[in-house]
Amino acid sequence: MNRRGNCIIGQSGGPTAAINASLSGVLQGILENDLYSNVYGMVNGIEGLLQGKYLDLSAKFQTKEELDRLTHTPSMYLGSCRFKLPTCEHSEVVYRDLFRFFEAHNIKTVFYIGGNDSMDTVLKLSDYAKAHHYDVNVIGIPKTIDNDLPITDHTPGFGSAAKFVATSLLEIAHDTYIYNIPSVTIVEIMGRNAGWLTAAAALARNSYSMAPDLIYLPEAVFDKERFIEDVKAIKEKRKNVIIAVSEGIKDSEGQYISASTSAVDSFGHKQLCGVGKTLENLLKAELGCKVRSIELNVLQRAGGHIASLTDLEEAVMIGKTAATLGAQGETAKMICYKRLQNSPYQVETFAYDIHSIANGEKTVPLEWINETQNDVTSDLIDYLMPLIQGEVSLSFTSGIPNYCNIDHLFTPGYFKEHK
């Protein structure tokens, strides 16, 4: 069944180096198979669409060169939002406005690319369409550097962020080892409740460097006294200690080590701040050596210059799958990866019911954390290693990567001028 009509694509949540590759994959699948008459793009996700902000993507991306540039452009070409779609019971007017737009533009399929909260949007839109008999299907395409969406083996964007983290840890080691001065370096890595990205720091280890010497994930209870003893034990063996720690580590009562006492984001998540600095101050009081903390912060999210080729190729593949299934009338599904084997590495894509995914969370299995809870096991290394393989080939202008023009995201009056 070919849906024809038109479709619309949105992006939401935090940026990655691969989310535009998924957008490119959807566009490639549509163009190659003539699946829809026209393709629109929400600007700033559902929130932007409610404000009347959208693009005609069919007019902007018509050649392989344009789509390749989009594939290699980090972050969101369409912009993002942190908008929590209310329930229909609390604000049906929002749904009426959205579906009025879909009807007016002959939208047959909505593709939404994002993480946990974005899949909640997919769930709510698809349920509303079904309950009110709208001929609109909704497909979720995963995205998150946190790698914490259920069902799928991994998420687009995670492999590139993992490659960035591992590369950064190796370069920090090179920076640290040059001085004949005892030191402790704490590297704070993103991950609220899932430690996948922090675990990827272990991929930095090689024949001459064991950094990071210690790894702490939020899945394991963090004990400050045991932490101090762990560091002292490494210091007895090595002059320099390098530690990878997740921003979301918690104590035995489940309290974030670094949590603010009051600040929360728009989704009600407690804002985390300064676990690296907290541990730095703790160790300074205990150790007679130099201690510093480094927060990778937003740098790990959209490092297009060090993206994983495997990640980008799979993101294009998952986008193409979404385009095909959307045209066939599938709805209320998220497209997932299934790992067939590690060596040689091979995956395939499949669709899964969004009701079993939205508002769920996948964390690192405890059996993949060592017994002393300060490192990861070889099974986790085997899982991670294939995801960071391959290097991208970027085009450059004046020595800087030649990414897609995104002036529609920040030019005042852009949408009034381009109506």
UniProtKB/TrEMBL annotation:
Cited HAMAP family: Phosphofructokinase_II_B2
Stretches assigned to the Phosphofructokinase domain: 8-304
Domain of life: Bacteria
Gene: pfp
Keyword match Lipid biosynthesis: no
Record EC number: 2.7.1.90
The protein's assembly and partners: Homodimer.
GO biological process: fructose 6-phosphate metabolic process
Reaction(s) this enzyme catalyzes, per UniProt: beta-D-fructose 6-phosphate + diphosphate = beta-D-fructose 1,6-bisphosphate + phosphate + H(+)
Activity modulation notes: Non-allosteric.
Residues bound to Mg(2+): N116
Transmembrane region(s): none
Sites annotated Important for catalytic activity: K143
Designated name of the protein: Pyrophosphate--fructose 6-phosphate 1-phosphotransferase
